[in-house]
Design the sequence.
């Protein structure tokens, strides 16, 4: 079958990537979507069960750092567009093991860029390398200190954000040096179904369900700007098709929450959905040692994306968080499969090369 486009999505078995793959596979039957994912601890093919047999979907288990394999994928599938999400994504892990972050996020991105450059060989017509990045590259804002815009200077503090900042620079350098059509977007904290339960929201929902402590780092005063993951996927779709080459777009929903206030909302909603009297799980809150280098506040100014491309978040936070908590409570086998480690055994048996 001839496809109109052949798009490589990296990290498609992860949290955001699975929503992007699902959206593209369902919305664009005329495109072939090649999902390249190493299936690290964060990759889970159960996130894509509903589309795994779609005729326009291909899964390839590979490491983005494996340059020869990435080159082979470009030529085998005639890749003309890349949406690059594969990364090590958890700040706490980056503090313990920065090398893995430099390897995947920096060298892996470079390996993809170089493979795209070799494959496209100066014919940039109809090609795009779209890199998904984070607001954490901009550093930290004061409690009352404005917003990150596309002009904010990079000032990363964690090994994770330093590695993402470096990858952003490499992507832009391939545009400036070789003329490759590239776009970079920097998004705020995502929440929604299929997020790995090391991140605040799914971790806390699962701990409430099991009556386990809720570890609040420091005083809980840190502020994050939360966006429903499907709204991020919609923005990625819009920018992939309508974004201007060499531009940067910030993505966020103007939805700031102090961690401790968000945690109270999660507790209240989860208790209600679990049929517990209000306040039942409040005693689970446990203030613990702060994250090293913990950025105080992130807040994205996404007015450029709204004014130039007309994107806006579709969900109000109250609706999104309730939908999310309900999803985790309704999909307990998904969560239990992860927390028991069963999902990894499944892949070991399936691929035997993990
Ligand atoms: P995730 O950890 O849930 O998923 C990452 C995916 O990448 C996994 O499927 C994993 O198996 C795969 N992967 C990791 N190393 C790989 C390698 N070497 N080769 C191939 N695949 C590999 O991450 P996420 O939260 O979905 O984030 C996706 C992207 O979006 C990342 O680039 C992240 O920096 C960025 N981002 C995330 C957020 C957020 O709130 N989660 C916000 C802004 C930007
Ligand atoms: O801002 C975008 C970033 O958001 C993405 O680039 C990252 O990939 C993603 O992981 C996320 O980073 P954060 O560090 O903000 O997310 P996390 O869920 O780890 O933490 C959210 C906030 O909650 C943060 O201030 C730390 C705090 N926290 C987190 C955990 C896991 C706690 O207080 N306790 C916890 O147990």
Sequence:
């Amino acid at each position: 079958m001839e496809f109109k486009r052949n798009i490589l999505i990296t990290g498609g078995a992860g949290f955001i990537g699975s929503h992007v793959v699902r959206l593209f596979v369902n919305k664009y039957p005329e495109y072939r979507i090649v999902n390249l994912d190493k299936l690290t601890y964060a990759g889970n093919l159960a996130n894509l069960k509903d589309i795994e047999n779609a005729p326009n979907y291909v899964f390839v288990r590979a490491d983005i750092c494996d340059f020869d394999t990435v080159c082979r994928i470009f030529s085998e599938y005639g890749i003309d567009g890349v949406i690059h999400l594969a990364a090590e994504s958890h700040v706490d892990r980056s503090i313990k093991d920065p090398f893995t972050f430099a390897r995947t996020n920096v060298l892996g991105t470079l390996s993809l860029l170089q493979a795209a450059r070799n494959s496209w060989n100066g014919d940039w017509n109809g090609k795009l390398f779209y890199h998904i990045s984070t607001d954490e590259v901009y550093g930290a804002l004061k409690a009352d200190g404005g917003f990150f815009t596309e002009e904010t200077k990079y000032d990363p503090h964690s090994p994770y954000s330093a590695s993402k900042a470096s990858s952003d620079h490499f992507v832009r350098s391939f545009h400036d040096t070789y003329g490759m059509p590239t776009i970079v977007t920097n998004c705020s904290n995502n929440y929604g179904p299929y997020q790995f339960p090391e991140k605040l929201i799914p971790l806390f929902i699962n701990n409430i369900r099991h009556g386990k402590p809720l570890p609040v780092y420091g005083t809980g005063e840190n502020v994050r700007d939360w966006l429903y993951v499907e709204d991020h996927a919609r923005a990625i779709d819009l920018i992939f098709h309508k974004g201007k080459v060499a531009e940067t777009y910030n993505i966020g929903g103007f939805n700031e929450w102090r961690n401790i206030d968000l945690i109270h909302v999660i507790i209240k909603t989860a208790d209600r959905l679990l049929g517990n009297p209000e306040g039942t799980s409040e005693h689970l809150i446990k203030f613990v040692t702060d994250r090293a280098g913990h950025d105080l506040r992130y807040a994205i100014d996404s007015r450029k994306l709204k004014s130039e491309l007309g994107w806006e978040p579709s969900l109000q936070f109250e609706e999104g968080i309730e939908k999310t908590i309900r999803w985790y409570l309704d999909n307990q086998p998904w969560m239990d499969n992860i927390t028991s480690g069963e999902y990894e055994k499944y892949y070991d048996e399936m691929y035997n090369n993990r």
Notes: The chain has a mean pLDDT of 96. DSSP finds twelve helices and twelve strands in the chain.
